[in-house]
Structures are given as C-alpha cells and as structure tokens.
TrEMBL record:
This is Beta-xylosidase. Keywords: Glycosidase, Hydrolase. The record marks D155 as: Important for catalytic activity, responsible for pKa modulation of the active site Glu and correct orientation of both the proton donor and substrate. Belongs to the glycosyl hydrolase 43 family. The keyword Hydrolase applies. InterPro entries: ConA-like_dom_sf, GH43_C2, Glyco_hydro_43, Glyco_hydro_beta-prop_sf, Glycosyl_Hydrlase_43. One of its GO terms (biological process) is carbohydrate metabolic process. It comes from Prolixibacter denitrificans. The active site is at D44 (proton acceptor), E212 (proton donor). One of its GO terms (molecular function) is hydrolase activity, hydrolyzing O-glycosyl compounds. Residues 330-523 form the Beta-xylosidase C-terminal Concanavalin A-like domain.
Length: 531
C-alpha cells in the first residue's frame, strides 16, 4: 500500500467521481418525466382521472373536428382518442364562405367531467354565441350527444355537485355562478349570481388580464377554484380561491408565479400524489402543457418546488416521443374498418367533403378544388396537424399532373404569418414556389420551373430557445433536397391564437375542378441541421 497519493492520482479519482455523478444524474433524469409534458400546442387543458386512466380535453378553436380528447396511463405520455364534435356549426364563418372566417374563435377552453358513468365536456363559442355541452358513455369511441344554449359562457367550468345540482362558473375578472337545468338544456331562471367580484385581487391591483380560465374542484369537502390572471408588466399567474360552499364566500391567494406557467387545475394519482396541470405560452409552437407537483398545507394546494416549476418530475415515467400519440405520419393507405382520417388530422375550418378523398386513388389523399379562392387562408380543405418541439420536419410527395391553370398546391406552415412551398400552375407552365407571409402579406420569394409530374416538399421548424425559424425545401427525386426561398421567422399571433401547423393544401384562383394527389405526409422530430 502506498503511503501517499500523488496529485495526478487525486485528479484522476476526482474526474472519475464527477463522471460517475454526472452519469447517475443523467440516468435518473432519463428515467423521469420532464417539462414540458407535451412540446406542442395543447392549450386550455382540462383533465380528469377515471380509475387508473387520465383523460384530457383541449382547445383547437376553428379546426374541425374540435375539442380533442387525449388519454394517458401515466400523466406524461398522451394519445389522441376522440373529438367531442365533427363540426361545431354550419355557419359561414366556420365554413370559410362569403369572405368570413373563424380564425382565433370557434370553440375555446373546455371543461371535462365524469359523473355517474357519463363523460361530459363543455365549451363555448364567440362565433355562434352559444354554450355547448357534449356527453357520452364511451369517451374513446362515442357517440357524443350535443346540448347547446345561449348565451356563450366565457371559460366556463362545468361542475356536478354531490347533491345532484349542476353548475357553471364563468367570466373574466368578475366571476359568475349559474345553475343548469337537469337536462343541460339551459340555465335555471334567476340562478345567475356574482360569485367573486374581483378574482384577480390576489395577484395585485395592476392587472392586464382579468382572472379567467375557471376550473372548479371539490377536495375533502372544500371547493377550490383555479384561475389565470396577468399582472401588468408581469407574467401569467395562477390564483386560487377556496370556500366551504359552492356559493361562497371565497378566500383567495396567489397560487404560482413562475415561467408564465398558468391556467389549469388539479389532478391526483391513484397512489395519492397531487399535481397541477398548466400551460406556458411558448412562442410559435403554441401553448404547451406542464405538470407542477403540489402538496397540501393548511387546506391549500401549494404549487411547485419552493414555488418554482421544476424541469424534472421524479416519480413519473420518462416522456416518450409525441409521434405517434399526438402527431403522426400518414401514407394514406386505408385497410378495411380503418378511420378515413386518423385523429392526428384536423381540417382548417369545416371541410367540404365533396372535394377530398383517400379512396379515389388508393394510397393517396386527393384534394380537388371546388371553387375559386383569392388567398391561402381563405381556401377550404387544408388538412393540418400540429408542429412539435424542440424541432420537427414535415415531408410530402405530390402528383401535380391534374392541376388546372391558376391552381396552387403544396405544403404549408399555417398561421397568420404563414409559409408555403408548393406548385403553381400559371401561364401554361408549372413552377415550384416558396411564399412567405412573414410581413403580414404573402410574397412569392422564389419560383423554379417544374417539368415533371411529381415533386417532393419539406418544411422544417426550429423552436429551440424560441428561435422560431422555419426553412423550406424541394426535391425532384425524394433523395436530394434543395433549400428554396427565404427563412420564415415564425410568430404566434393572436388573430389565429394557435401554434404553427403543417398543412396540405390545394386551391384554385381561376377555374375549379383541378386536383392533386398527396402520396404521404411524414413527420419527424429532427431537422437537417442535426443530421
């Protein structure tokens, strides 16, 4: 045995200890969940647990079908299982006709409940001026029954109390309570009352966004109301009120103020752990869900770890890829009994079902122009699904041999400041073009003549560190890719109120009746700069 250890040996031992510590920490993190839970646009979550299964509803506004329902066994990894409705209403704004649209409106924050063997989800719409309640015995397979009534109750929270009475809390800043009729057909006359005069008060007096996003829970006989508010010059903030009776009086306190993570509610696990489910505005990818551990102190839920939103969530399993649960590739091959469109897809506004098909040409999505349109945003039958972070790419192959002059078809990144790569047929010839609406108006950046019937298109998104940059590519053989046009600086805009989406589109500017065939859409969680 040596009597001493040299400095060189000490340094070596120290390095080994550091590496071992790092490896253990990394391994532990890989085995644990991390925030965000879903790095994609899944805002305004409402969550329930039925036995050992969790269900969550969210907002997709002007998209069709609407009010997506997701399922999880572990609170971390989710998959699409249903929608509450196929179309919200048959009106001009939702149909994209007569110059009207419902961007940023449609249906907003939902409230998901389970009561006496039936699932309920409520929502509301500025577009129609109504409140909606959808119900089903089978949340995954449906069918859903619709009840609707006026007025439209903003950010309502549906609540079934133990005494059999049914309530809604709604409003912004000043919150109201109404009691519903047993058949959910409307409000009991004379039941509307002010519940909390100024629900933002726990966050101070200088408020930019009044308390909204109500979600009501009952735990150990007490009522707990979660809201989001936004102090001027500050960040999105959770405020919590509690009461012994649903009618109040309510006492309030600030629930969480960190990273702008807010709006949501309470969920518990079968083994007795508690979490708050919330979301964060995260630039152009959209509003993304977070889980925040909580403990109970003196009858109050205390959110976070020392008041902070943790990056790692020990005790919950590691996050898996959002592919195929939230987004997925599609080769448009349908076996007997399969859904015509998988649940990852939504149409931009209500589709016109006469002008799309996955059966007219086996293994292809056919989009046929049914009318003349003046712009991409007002064109019908754009088929979309979410982009995902931190990076993603979408690729498609398109047969353009049956386009008519004036047609434009291709791959989009959809938001107000959109980007397009596709094929335009004009002046007797076809060209591959890239269009950017980064300035707020569409500009054709590049045009390259196309002399073949098939072209391959790709869009890549980089959401890392909120850089929010997108690039577009084309290929003539599906192997060798060339950049086209300019970088798109993506921007989340309130008029559309939604994260960027991939979209497959085809519209006519001169004569309807032309069509294109999409062979596939492939989504990946990597981009070429990483390859």
């Amino acid at each position: 045995m040596p009597k001493y250890i040299t400095m060189k040996k000490l340094s070596f031992i120290f390095i080994i200890i550091l590496l071992t510590s790092f490896s253990i920490k990394t391994f532990a993190q890989e085995k644990s969940a991390h925030n965000p839970i879903i790095y994609a646009d899944v805002p305004d979550e409402s969550m329930i647990r039925v036995g050992d299964t969790y269900y969550m509803s969210s907002t997709t506004m002007h998209m069709s079908p609407g009010v997506p329902i997701m399922k999880s066994k572990d609170l971390v990894n989710w998959q699409m299982v249903s929608y509450a409705y196929d179309t919200l209403a048959n009106v001009d704004a939702l149909n994209l006709v007569n110059g009207k649209s419902s961007y940023g409106r449609g249906s907003w924050a939902s409230s998901l409940r389970y009561h006496n063997g039936t699932y309920y989800v409520s929502t509301f719409s500025q577009t129609t001026g109504k409140t909606y309640i959808y119900s089903t015995k089978d949340i995954e397979k449906g069918p859903w029954k619709e009840s609707s009534f006026r007025p439209s109750f903003h950010d309502n929270s549906l609540f079934f109390d133990n005494d059999g009475r049914i309530y809604m809390i709604y409003g912004a800043g000043k919150l109201h309570l109404v009691e519903l009729k047993k058949d959910l057909s409307g409000v009991k006359e004379g039941s509307d009352r002010v519940l909390i005069e100024n629900a933002s008060a726990p966050a101070g007096s200088n408020i930019m966004l009044g308390a909204e996003g109500s979600q009501l829970f009952k735990v150990n006989g007490k009522y707990y109301l979660f809201n989001i508010t936004w102090p001027r010059g500050g960040m999105r903030t959770v405020v919590i009120h509690r009461a012994d009776k649903i009618t109040g009086p309510y006492e309030g306190k600030l629930g969480l103020q960190d990273k702008g993570v807010a709006q949501g509610g309470l969920i518990d696990t079968p083994d007795g752990r508690w979490f708050a489910y919330l979301f964060q505005d995260h630039g152009s990818v959209g509003r993304i869900p977070y889980l925040v551990p909580l403990k109970w102190e003196n009858g109050w839920p205390v959110l976070g770890v020392d008041g902070k939103v943790p990056d790692v969530l020990p005790g919950l399993p590691a996050n898996k890829s959002l592919i195929p649960g939230i987004v997925n590739s599609d080769d448009f091959n349908r076996s007997k009994g399969e859904a015509v469109l998988p649940l990852v897809w939504q149409w931009n506004h209500n589709p016109d079902n006469k002008f799309w098909s996955v059966t007219q040409r086996k293994g292809y999505l056919r989009l046929t122009t049914g009318r003349v349109d003046t712009s991409f945003l007002m064109a019908r039958n754009t088929l979309t699904q979410r982009t995902i972070g931190p990076v993603c790419s979408g690729t498609t192959s398109i047969d353009v041999s049956n386009m008519k002059e004036g047609d434009f078809a291709g791959l989009a990144l959809l938001q107000k400041k959109y980007g397009l790569v596709g094929v335009k047929f004009k002046k007797g010839g076809k060209s591959i073009v890239m269009v950017s609406a980064e300035s707020g108006k569409p500009v054709e950046i590049t045009s390259i003549p196309l002399n073949q019937k098939t072209v391959y298109l790709k869009a890549e998104c980089d959401f890392r560190d909120r850089t929010d940059k997108a690039h577009f590519f084309y290929s003539l053989d599906g192997k060798s890719w060339k950049s086209i046009g300019a970088q798109l600086q993506m921007q989340y805009t309130i008029p559309q109120f939604m994260g960027y989406r991939f979209g497959l589109f085809n519209y006519a500017t001169q004569t309807p009746g032309g069509y294109v065939d999409f062979d596939y859409f492939h989504i990946a969680n990597h981009i070429s700069s990483e390859d």
